[in-house]
Specification:
By secondary structure, this protein is α/β, with parallel strands linked by helices. It is 39% helix and 26% strand. Residues 43-136 form the Methyltransferase domain.
Length: 206
């Protein structure tokens, strides 16, 4: 956690300026997600980075609690919210297991481009399930490291050694779906825009 926080704090300025890799796919994910949002929805986004997605969804919900382990990322996020005059998003430094949330607190939880960066995916998915209200949904977009070019398997450890990459879990699509269903979720929507990534919406039974 400490090494990952250091990495993301150092990366924050560059990350904030980076362009979205696939704008069309990103827009589709926003649209699909909004089909699950309601004006009274209470939303949690963990691993929110510089807050761009949370701020785009803010007009469609009652409140978004956005979290990240990087305080430097959240400094940028808070400035974006201020400039956009968005007042229904609150930013908090921390992770799913360090922040004090109540059981069944949220209607929707977003984990976008974050699950493959977590050291305890099983535990964090279980935590998401507990934090969702009955009938709530978990929206995730995940890099499938195990399905990428095998060369990345050799390159990533080298990049990590020199501080150019954070912790990365070698998740496959099958492993992720299996973990979600074993936890109690039902897959409500699945889209794979590329071999190396999957967008899922998992529902907690009402």
């Amino acid at each position: 956690m400490k090494d990952s926080k250091t990495f993301w704090n150092k990366s924050a300025p560059r990350y904030a300026k980076s362009a979205i890799k696939d704008e069309a796919a990103y827009q589709k994910k926003l649209t699909v997600t909004r089909g699950y949002l309601q004006p009274e929805s209470l939303v949690l986004e963990f691993g929110c980075g510089t807050g761009s997605t949370a701020l785009l969804h803010a007009p469609y919900v009652k409140h978004i609690t956005a979290t990240d382990i990087s305080d430097k990322m959240l400094e940028i996020a808070e400035q974006k919210a201020k400039e956009a005059n968005i007042n229904n998003v609150s930013f908090h430094v921390g992770s799913l297991d360090t922040l004090d949330f109540s059981k069944e607190q949220f209607d929707v939880i977003l984990g976008l481009n974050i699950l493959h960066l977590l050291e305890d995916v099983e535990g964090d998915i279980s935590r998401v399930y507990d934090l969702l209200k009955p009938g709530g949904v978990f929206v995730s977009s995940t890099a499938l490291i195990d399905d990428m070019n095998p060369a990345w398997g050799l390159l990533i450890p080298l990049m990590q050694f020199f501080g150019f990459a954070p912790y990365v879990s070698k998740l496959s699509k099958q492993q992720l779906v299996s973990q979600l269903t074993l936890t109690g979720f039902k897959i409500d929507y699945e889209w794979q825009p590329a071999k190396e990534s999957v967008f899922l919406i998992a529902k907690k039974e009402a």
